[in-house]
Amino acid sequence: MNSRVLNLERPLVLAHRMMISGVPENTVLALENAIENHVDWIEFDVKVLTDGEMVSMHDELVDRTTNGYGSITQMTLPEVKKLNAGKGYSFGFVPVPTVEEIIQVIAKCPYPLKAEMHIHNLWEPESLIELLRKYNVQDRCYFNLNAVIMGEY
Q1: Closest residue by Cα to residue 85 from 29, 47, 34, 40
Q2: Mean of pLDDT values over 18-25
Q3: What sign for the dihedral angle of Cα 24, 28, 29, 32?
Q4: How confident is the model at residue 27 (pLDDT cuts 50, 70, 90)?
Q5: Residues 72, 75, 76, 82: what is their CA dihedral angle, to the nearest 10 degrees?
Q6: Looking only at Cα atoms, what is the longest distance across the chain?
Q7: Residues assigned a catalytic role
Q8: What angle do CA 104, 105, 108 make, to 5 degrees?
Q9: Cβ-proximal residues to 74 (8 Å cutoff; 6+ apart), any chain
Q10: Structure confidence by residue, pLDDT tens digits, 89-112
C-alpha cells in the first residue's frame, strides 16, 4: 500500500463555495445545507470591505449572485447587508454572510467540519486569525492565500 494515500472507508466530501446543490453559494444557508448533508470539508471565499469587515463572496462584482451591482470590495458592511444573495433562487431574502457568521456556524457544527478559506484581498490576516481563535476553530480552518503576505503564525 502506498503510504501517501489515505486509507478511508469513503471519499471525503467537499462543498465548494459551501454549496451542495440548489442553494445560493457562499451563504449561511449553503453552509447549513452542507452540514445537514454531513460534508467533511467546506470551502468559501473571503473579501474585505472598505470598512474592514470580512464577508464571503466569490466574485469581485456582486452582479451575478445578488440583486445589486458593483465591486464588493468597494462597499461597506451596511451596503452589503442590503444585498440579496439568493438571486435566482426562491428562498426569499438571503443575506451575504460575514466571515464571523460563517465561523459561528462552523463552531456549532456537531462534528469536526473542516473549512478552507480562499483569501482574496486580506493583506494582514491577524483579524481573521483572532476570529478563528475566538470561536476555537483554528485547528479546523485553513487559508488558501490568493493575496495574503504571510508571516509566522
Answers
A1: 29
A2: 88
A3: positive
A4: very high
A5: -70
A6: 54
A7: 16, 58
A8: 90
A9: 50
A10: 999 999 999 999 999 999 999 999
